[in-house]
Write a structure and sequence with these properties.
single chain, 641 residues, alpha/beta, six-stranded mixed sheet, five-stranded parallel sheet, 22 helices, 17 strands, Glyco_hydro_3_N, glycosidase, hydrolase activity, hydrolase, signal
């Protein structure tokens, strides 16, 4: 999922006011025909928690007007409804979300819970009192909340090769998220990243479908081991995304603004697609019963019928309905990505009709909710969308709400809010950081470091918690600086040595030091904004190269750490390093990096993606013909504690 671009942010207030004005022109969701009114006077079986979920869904669906059903299929952004909350009631909205950086004025656990509960009260003011489902991008912890535990991004978790740790991470994320109100997370991303030039590489667990499939256990961390867990205060509804093939698009195929690969086209045959891109979703559905799935912005172009006729996933009847729902057996609901249907061919009614008929169930229409409701109502009344398709979509959404226990407990259970960012949670994140570190080179036993050594640290990323957290941290794109509490890599080094000199630009004298540590890497970005060719490159910055040259040329032992969301090109600088470590984007607990540098924990991480020799070598993946990377998939040296 994405956050609005600047042009959307700039017009948010105007759009919200326009949307509010539009509501008055819509048919009221409270209007009921006589037959339904008569049935509504009967016993409300859907309110009886003792009845089976399927029976409750059927009973409630039979009491709903068409307007109420379409409302359930509609999701609005909080920025569009916050100033006019009665829209939730008037439109009978099924869901509200927070995009990246869309936070309450009081960005605290209580501020979040108060906001979500206020929206919920508006949903409960509707005729049938159907509770609201609130969604958020908790993609590496409850990352929109300042003070939450922020874990390494997925690529680092892939490097741990520890599914149990991934499960534990997401269970903590579920607790911290649900304690603040949202009951639904747009995670995990189970895409298979096949080209590290992609700006979302760090959201993937890796390039091999087997690894990603193993890490799909994240769903169990979010949702629990059985359906009953969903209704507790320790679990949330998960979303497997982005179905399917978004990590396998062709470089240069994107038509979204200046993006080069994100939201592009996956050119493949059905057999390869099933083996590479689809495999994690089969496990997500059949083994873990994922409650929702988010189709991708990307398109698929089957080679069997000739290249040149790609179909956007939001319109792909074959993959959404025939494959996912019928063949694989997905019984949850599909939610579109941010305004995804707006990318389909045709006018807005055609876009809506096409996507609904293809199998989309809920529509993320952040600033177009009133227009969406009006349009879909018109399409149904004109017979272009069948009532049966609407009822199928709404049944799936209601099923999730019943399983979450929202009808019995619609408001936030704040009992576990005290655990948010707790030492216990941060200890798990610190363990994850340590296990994610991949030792790629270690000449002459440079690591682990020895006690009493004088250490010289260079590089901005050594002491910038915003950079080490990456995108999707407090805001959509993330930002540099002290944006969240936690420990930087430098903090961790200083916890282990009393002889540390830090110089961001390596301008301080280097003499008298035994070890130089140079921390290089990227600054934050998210989605296609980070695509190579869209203002980004895999090459190290000139400043990072200069720091390596100076420190490695002056100090006897030189260690380089790379803090980035993907491999960077280090081929020409590698001979100057005694040790080279890929640190990924560790999140809030940078001290975990120091744990392996100083031998408190051993290096055990392994590359989840292939490390290229040059940018031009991409895409390169394990199993390719003439496979000759700088470091192969799975590479990772070991040290002892």
């Amino acid at each position: 999922m994405r956050h609005p671009h600047r042009r959307l942010i700039a017009t948010r207030i105007g759009r919200s006011l326009a949307a509010f004005a539009t509501v008055a022109a819509l048919p009221s969701a409270v209007a009921v025909d006589p037959a339904l009114a008569a049935r509504a006077r009967g016993p409300a079986a859907y309110l009886d928690a003792r009845r089976p979920v399927a029976e409750r869904v059927s009973d409630l669906l039979g009491r709903m007007t068409l307007e109420e059903k379409v409302g359930q299929m509609t999701q609005a952004e909080r920025g569009a409804v916050d100033g006019a909350r009665d829209q939730i009631t008037t439109l009978a909205l099924g869901s509200v979300l927070s995009g990246g950086g869309s936070v309450p004025a009081d960005n605290t656990p209580s501020g979040w819970a108060d906001m979500v509960d206020a929206y919920q009260s508006k949903a409960l003011a509707t005729r049938l009192k159907i509770p609201l489902l609130y969604g958020i991008d908790s993609v590496h912890g409850h990352n929109n909340l300042v003070g939450a535990t922020v874990f390494p991004h997925n690529i680092g978790m892939g490097a741990t090769r520890d599914p149990g740790l991934v499960r534990k991470e997401e269970q903590i994320t579920a607790v911290e998220t649900k304690a603040t109100g949202p009951q639904w997370v747009f995670a995990p991303c189970v895409c298979v990243s096949r080209d590290v030039r992609w700006g979302r590489t760090y959201e993937s667990f890796g390039e091999h479908p087997r690894l990603v499939t193993e890490m799909a256990v994240a769903i169990e961390g979010f949702q629990g081991g059985n359906k009953r867990d969903l209704a507790t205060n320790r679990h949330v509804l998960a979303t497997a995304k982005h179905y399917a093939g978004d990590g396998d698009t062709v470089f240069g195929s994107s038509t979204s603004g200046t993006y080069t690969i994100d939201q592009g086209v996956t050119v493949t045959d059905r057999r390869t697609f099933a083996k590479v891109d689809l495999a994690p979703y089969v496990t997500a559905v059949r083994k873990y019963g994922v409650g929702s799935i988010m189709p991708s912005f990307s398109s698929v172009d089957w080679t069997e019928d000739g290249v040149g006729n790609p179909v956007k996933m939001s319109a792909h009847t074959e993959l959404l309905t025939e494959v996912l729902k019928k063949k694989i057996g997905f019984d949850g609901f599909l939610v579109s990505d941010w305004e995804a249907v707006h990318q389909l061919p045709g006018d807005y009614p055609t876009q809506v009709r096409t996507s609904v008929n293809a199998g989309m169930d809920m529509f993320m229409e952040p600033y177009s909710a009133p227009q969406f409701v009006r349009t879909l109502l018109d399409e149904v009344r004109a017979g272009r969308v069948k009532t049966s398709r609407i009822e199928d979509a709404v049944s799936r959404i209601l099923k999730a709400k019943f399983e979450l226990g929202l009808f019995e407990h619609p408001y936030t259970d704040r009992g576990l809010a005290r655990t948010i960012g707790s030492p216990e949670h941060r200890a798990v994140a610190r363990e994850a950081v340590a296990k994610s570190q991949v030792l790629l080179k270690n000449s002459q036993g440079a690591l682990p470091l020895r006690k009493g050594e004088r250490i010289y640290v260079a590089g901005v990323n050594a002491d910038d918690i915003g950079n080490q957290a990456g995108g999707w941290t407090v805001t959509w794109q993330g930002s540099s600086g002290g944006i969240i509490p936690g420990t930087t890599i430098l903090d961790g080094i200083e916890q282990n040595s009393s002889h540390v000199t830090y110089s961001a630009d390596a301008s301080a004298p280097t003499s008298g030091n035994d070890v130089g540590i140079v921390v290089v890497g990227e600054t934050p970005y998210a989605e296609g904004v980070g695509d190579v060719g869209n203002g980004h490159t895999l090459n190290l910055s000139d400043a990072d190269k200069a720091n390596i040259d100076k420190v490695c040329g002056a100090i006897r032992t030189c260690v380089v750490l790379d803090v980035a969301g993907r491999p960077q090109i280090v081929t020409d600088r590698l001979p100057r390093m005694d040790a080279f470590v890929m640190s990924w984007l560790p999140g809030s607990e940078g001290a975990g990096v120091a744990d392996v540098l100083f031998g408190r924990r051993p290096f055990t991480g392994r590359l989840p993606v292939t490390w290229p020799r040059s940018e031009g070598q991409e895409p390169i993946n394990i199993g390719d013909r003439d496979y000759a990377p700088l470091f192969p998939y799975g590479h990772g040296l070991r040290t002892r504690r």
